[in-house]
Amino acid sequence: MMKDRPAQLFRNNELNEYMIIVLPYAEINNEVKNFKREFFKKYGPYSGQNSCAHIGLMSFFQTADREEKLMQSVQEVVGQLKGFEVFLNGFEFDSNQRSVYVDILNKQSLEGLYHQLRLRLFKDLVSLAFLNKNYTPMMKIGQNLSPLQFLDAIADNKTRAYTNNFRVTRLHVLKRKAPYTTWESLAAVPFARAENELMGLH
């Protein structure tokens, strides 16, 4: 009987990876998919070419037995906040990760949301090692490009115009189990509704 206990303990505390993201409207997702297809045709394969359009907030590992507490913490933070608009504007580039992304004009709302989640999750569950105090919201097109891909992407897109906007009304929580290859949707967590949203004006 004693030989069976370690295996049972491991199963009960399976380590999952979680990611919290913002998803835009379907129209914007389709536009970003077109950008990704265009990049693939011009520059060849790259990391992120098949992912949907999203703004990543955070990702971290947590044992499966803490999942209910994790979701409760996220719901309590988000349920006290009202939805907000996100305005997209043009393309930017990160030389450290050799990434290309759609820039966000009004970063403050997403930054504030990130830091509230970070503090709550650290208090309840998650090591700060997973939760960087520095956060810049962005909608990535691709990352970890080769040096040549990155230089070509900058030359082709640094003055390229793109604008759109969408309203954030919920956060999406994803998870994946070992061997951490495929994300699955865990929950869509709604923000508190403003009065005009309750009246159907948004």
UniProtKB/TrEMBL annotation:
Q: Name one Pfam family in it.
A: 2_5_RNA_ligase2
Note the InterPro entries from the entry.
2H_phosphoesterase_YjcG-like, Cyclic_Pdiesterase
Which PANTHER family does its entry note? PHOSPHOESTERASE SAOUHSC_00951-RELATED, PHOSPHOESTERASE YJCG-RELATED
This protein is called what? 2'-5' RNA ligase
Supply the source organism for this entry: Roseivirga spongicola
What lineage, starting at the top, does this entry show? Bacteria, Pseudomonadati, Bacteroidota, Cytophagia, Cytophagales
